[in-house]
Amino acid sequence: MSLKTVLILLGLALATIFALVCVLLTRGRTPRSCQHLPPEQEDFEDGQSLVFADLTPEEMSRVVRYLQGNLGVPLVDASRAKPSDNCIASVDLQVPAKAEVLRFLDGGGARPAREALAVLYFGNQADPNITEYVVGPLPTPVYHRDVTVHKYGGKVPHHRRPVTTKEYMDINALVQRELKKAPRFLAACCESDGTSLVLLTTAPGGFKSGDRMTWFVLFHNVAGTGYYLSPVGLEVLVDHGDLQVSRWQLHKVFYNGRYFASTGDLEQEFVAGVLEVVRLKQPQADTVLGSMRPRRPPGSPGPLQFEPQGPRYSVRDNRITFQGWSIAFGMSPNTGPRLFDIRYRGERIVYELSLQEALALYGSNCPGGMSTRYLDGSFGMGRFAYELVQGLDCPYTATYVDRHYLAETDTPKTNQNSLCIFEHDSALPLRRHFSDSQSLYYGGLRKNTLVIRAISTLINYDYIWDFMFHSSGAVEVRVHATGYISSSFFHGQGTDYGNRVGPHTLGTMHLHHIHYKVDLDVDGQLNSLETQDMEYEFVKDPWSTQNTIERPYLRRKRLEKEDEAAFPLNAPMPRYLSFVSPNPNKWEHLRSYRIQIISFAGKHLPTSSSMERSISWGRYQLAVTRRKEEEPTSTSIYNQNDPWTPTVTFADFINNETITNQDLVAWITVGFLHVPHAEDVPNTVTVGNGVGFFLRPYNYFNEDPSVDSSDSVYFSSEQDAGACGTNPLACLSSAAACAPHLPPFHFGGFLNL
C-alpha cells in the first residue's frame, strides 16, 4: 500500500471520528434554558391597590392581642371553645367605604384607615350573641366599635353562629358513645364497632329559629379515598342547641327506611330478629367504590404550556397587570375570591367583582339528604381554598400566591400556593380571517387570556373559580364543579331522587347555584340599564310593494326601576343587557358593557318555603340594584343555621328605586341541576359542568381594542410568510428553541390540616 493511500485513509478516518464526536456532543447537549425578560411595565400608582389588600398574619395577630386586652371579658381560643365560652371566631379585612376609596384613588384624597372586621361569639354571658367589631387602625389598633346593630338592624342571636370544628368533634364523641349501645347491630350491618364509621353533616339543623338539631349520615371510612360513596344506611339526629355540651342528646335514629328513638331501640329490634339488616363488608382500599388511585402506570407526558421569555404579566403585592389590564385581588375566608378596581387601558370598568355564595340543595328519601341545603359561605369558601397542585390544578409554570386567614383559632394560618395566576393559550383564535377574493391575505390573533384561579374544597365538592381577562376588553367569570358526589343509602323508591351508582349507593339529585356581586363602573360611577332584543316587522318591499318582507329590528328599552331589572331565574331575559354610560363613543352610541350569562340552573326553592328568604338571591338570574354601603353582600354566614329568620335577606334590596344614572350593582346567579350517574364515580368531571358569565364591551370602544395587540398576525400573498420580520409566528422556531426551567415539584397542602 502506497504512502499516499495510507494518508488518504487516515484523513478519512479522522474526519469520520470528528463527525461522530460532533453528533454525540450535539445529541447529549442540554437545550439552552429560556431567558426570561421582564414583563412590560404598566402605568399604575404604586401601592394604591393595598387599600384592598387582605390582612397580613401580623395584622391579624395584633387584632387578636388588642381584643384580648381591651374587651374586659375572658376569651378562649376558638379551637378549644365550648358553646358556653367567649371566643374570636374570625378576623378579616374591613373593606373601606367606596366613596373613601375613590377619593383616595381618583381624587388625591387621604388613604382610608386600614381596619379589620372581627367576629366574636359570646356564649359566656347573660345574653349570648354574635358581635362584630371594626378594629383599627392597623397595624397598631387603638379602637374598636360594635357595628352589629348598624349592619343587621339588631343583635345577632348566638344560635346563628356557624358550627365550629370543636363543636363537630364534640358531636362525634356523643355519637360514638351512642353507637356503643348497638354493638351487635353494628357488627352485623357494617363489620364495625363504630370507630371505623365517619359522620357527614347536613345543614341547616331543624325547622324553626333557635333549632340546632342536625342529621348526620354515617359512612364507611377507608383511608386514601372519599368516604362519600360508602353509606351504611345509618343516620342520626343530634340536638346540639344547648350551651352545655353535656346536655346534648341523640334525638332520633334512621336505618334503611325506618326511624327509631335511640340506638338502644335499634339494637333491641336487631336482637329480637325483627330488623331487616343489609350486611355490608368493610371496604378495602384497592376495591372501594370511588378510589382515585391510578389503574395504569404513568405514560408519556402530555403537552406543556410555558413562556419562552418568561411571564408577560406582573404581580406586585395584590396587583396584577397584563397587556392593559390592572386588577387588585384578594380572598375572603368566608366568600372566597374577590377582585377590586379592575381597569382596562387605565379606565376602571369594575369596582368590585366578588363571589357571594354557593348553594347545594339535595333531594333523597333519607332524612339527611332530603334536609340538606348547604350554604358554603358559612363553611368558608376562602378558608378551604387549599394549595393548588402545579401542573394539574394550574399550569406548572403559573405564579402561585399564598393566602392567609384567621378563623376558629387565635393563630393565623396560611394556605400556601392557594391562588394561581397564568396566561392561558386557549388554542383558539380570538379573531381571524382568510381572504380568498380580491386581495389575498390572512390576519388573526391568538386568544390568550389572563387567568386568576382558586379552588375551594367544601367537604365533598371542589369548586374551581376562574376570573379571566381577554385582550378584547372582556371579563369572563366561570365556575366548574368537580370532586365527589354526595350519596344516600339506596333503599325503597330511591331512584325517584337520583341514580344508583353502587351496590347500595344512591347518587342524590341536587342543584348548584352560585351568586356573584358585580359593581360595574362603566366610564364612571353613574350608569343606567338598557336592554336590546329582536322583533320582526312585516313590511312591503319598498322597490315594488308587491311582496312582504319579515324584517328583524332592534327593540331598545331603558329600564327605570329596580323591579324592572329583577329577572326571575330560568325566565326569558333580553338577549342584550348593558350597563350604559351617559357618554357616547366616536359613533354616537353610549359607551356600555354587556352582561351575558351562561347558566343551566335548576329550579329555585318555592317562595312558600319557610327558609326561602335566606336564599332569595336565587330567585333571580340577574337583579340590578342601586349600590348602597349598607348592602355589601347578598347573604350572611349566619343564614345557614337560621334560614327561617335570615340575618340578610337579598329580596329586601329590591324596592323599586330608580336606576337611571345611578351607581349600580349587578347580582348574578348561575348554576346547574346535577343528577348523578355512573360516570360521576369516582369524581364529577368538569366537562359540561361549568357555568358563568361575561362582561363584554358594547360600543365602549371605537373598535376592537385587541387590534393594538403585539401578538397580531398579518401576511399577504405578496409577502414571505416564513420570514420572521413579516410574521411573528415564523419567529417561534428560534424564540422558543429553549427548555423551560421547571422548579422541582413540591406540595405541602396536607401540612396545615
TrEMBL record:
The similarity comment for this entry is:
Belongs to the copper/topaquinone oxidase family.
Say if the entry is tagged with keyword Aminoacyl-tRNA synthetase. no
| A GO term from the CC aspect | plasma membrane
Q: Which residues are in the Copper amine oxidase N3-terminal domain?
A: 161-258
The protein's PTM annotation reads: Topaquinone (TPQ) is generated by copper-dependent autoxidation of a specific tyrosyl residue.
Output this protein's name: Amine oxidase
Asked if the keyword Protein transport belongs to this entry, the reply reads no
Q: Which GO biological-process labels does this protein carry? A: amine metabolic process
Enzyme Commission designation:
1.4.3.-
Q: Which cofactor does it need?
A: Cu cation
Chain ranges of the Copper amine oxidase catalytic domain = 305-706
Q: Which UniProt keywords apply?
A: Copper, Metal-binding, Oxidoreductase, TPQ
Q: What Pfam families would the database entry show?
A: Cu_amine_oxid, Cu_amine_oxidN2, Cu_amine_oxidN3
Q: Which residues form the active site?
A: 376 (proton acceptor), 461 (schiff-base intermediate with substrate)
Q: How is the cofactor bound?
A: Contains 1 topaquinone per subunit.
Q: Residues bearing 2',4',5'-topaquinone?
A: 461
Region Disordered: start-end pairs? 289-310
The Copper amine oxidase N2-terminal domain, residue ranges: 75-143
Query: What InterPro entries does the annotation carry?
Result: Cu_Am_Ox_Cu-bd, Cu_Am_ox_TPQ-bd, Cu_amine_oxidase, Cu_amine_oxidase_C, Cu_amine_oxidase_C_sf, Cu_amine_oxidase_N-reg, Cu_amine_oxidase_N2, Cu_amine_oxidase_N3
Named from the GO MF annotations, one term is: primary methylamine oxidase activity
